[in-house]
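Human:
I keep going back and forth on a fold encoding question. Comparing notes only helps if you start from a blank page. Show me how you would write down a chain together with its backbone fold. Write it directly below this note and I will take it from there.

Assistant:
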Amino acid sequence: MFKRILVANRGEIALRVIRTCREMGVEPVAIYSDVDRKALHVRMAHSAVALGGSTPRESYLDMDKVIAAAKASGSEAVHPGYGFLSERSAFARKVTEAGLVWIGPPPEAIEAMGDKITSRRNMKKAGVPVVPGLVDPVDDVERALAAAEEIGYPIAIKAAAGGGGKGIRLVRSKDEMATAFRTASGEALASFGDGRVYMERYVDEPRHIEVQVLFDKHGLGVHFGERECSIQRRHQKLIEEAPSVVVDDALRAKMGEIAVRAGAAVGYQNAGTVEFLYSKGEFYFLEMNTRLQVEHPVTEMVYGVDLVREQLRVAAGEPLGYTQGDVLAKKHGWSIEVRINAEDPFNGFVPSIGTIHNLRAPGGPWVRLDAALYRGMEVSLNYDPMLAKLIVWAPDRDAAIERMKRALAELNVGGVRTSAPAALLVLEEERFVRGQFDTHFLNHMDLATPRKGEDVLVAAASAIHRHLLMRRKALRTSDSSRAAWGTRSRASLSPYPAHVAGNGGGQ
């Protein structure tokens, strides 16, 4: 096993990797930009290296700076987390060329799956079902119109190098093709520097279901079941759960076998996720994410596995040490994850910025909060809006929904608006409870204004918060109050547990 690794990321995923490293006796090294100098992942790492700069391009996306930090710190390996450089084959190659171990798939596997056109070709060769459509890009409207007649409307135009919902347009008739094609291609070029697009049949009422896979360096691969990721806005996930209400044991085995086949076809190693579109009993390959997914905790909760630990083990050359049967035998219960984003769900999910001035984490049995939040933290537009992930486990889905609703009610992030109220609305929606939803579910919900009564609750909470601020100010400015409170420790005044306050959580 490695003695020391560099965590090439920030925020909650950096903290997530750091914690597993600590448990394994591995020294985690953090990197940070000027903006993140006081971040929790910096404080909790064994050591930290400053990259300088305030933007991602000046820091976490600078390959040479990250590799220099790894070498200067004496790290033996690099864990990329997700986002930033995690799916850059050029970075993976530079890491290995620098004599370091890349905790992820080989660069060739990233390239084979990173481009959607290339991955479709590879999957068709491997016998993996793909959505009917083109395997070559189209570069003009006339060719797009001709291809659409063969495929059949409605058509989805997608960026070849895309992700995050950018460069995608739905075309229901030939009259819409010209505008949609130019818009998708232009958006793809602006977002990814690659204007190529391809076309496939649009799948009606699709569900987004993905399968977690893990491969060692000795040719063995297994899957850890599926995750349901259909609750999305603008093609970005809000709520994930494991397992899925529409997947039974037979379908799970079939999807899992195909997901493992997909990874094996490109010589995959380490953790990855194969994503499928599911509709009316059929499923089709969508893409493969060649990294750890944001929603990996729900799989961990259901299968009793630490996927980061497994990533480190197989990257160090250890064999998996278990079979597919061993994995499925551990499947137990139901888990749900809610992403807590700094967004206003009642105003089109626009970003919300500010300072975290209050924080209350939920607790109780089988409640997990993956976050790097602390009071006084500045939430800006420099980085991704995801602040935290709230995860629960229960013996069955109904109990998991109720536990998540209770946990969300306990959560309080003061200073910015978050997506938590929207998630709570979804969990209380009868169609969601019945499992009757697809990727368009949020489009049919009224999120324009808070529910009746919510404005009163918000006003009451604001009044209480203002009262507490005034009370604290009075205590700070009163000599008698300072004397009375001076004998109490700083930790005892913090709403956080002692070990959190000790790490600066209350500052």
In short: The longest helix spans residues 454-477. The radius of gyration is 24 Å. Residues 452-456, 479-507 have pLDDT under 50 and may be disordered.
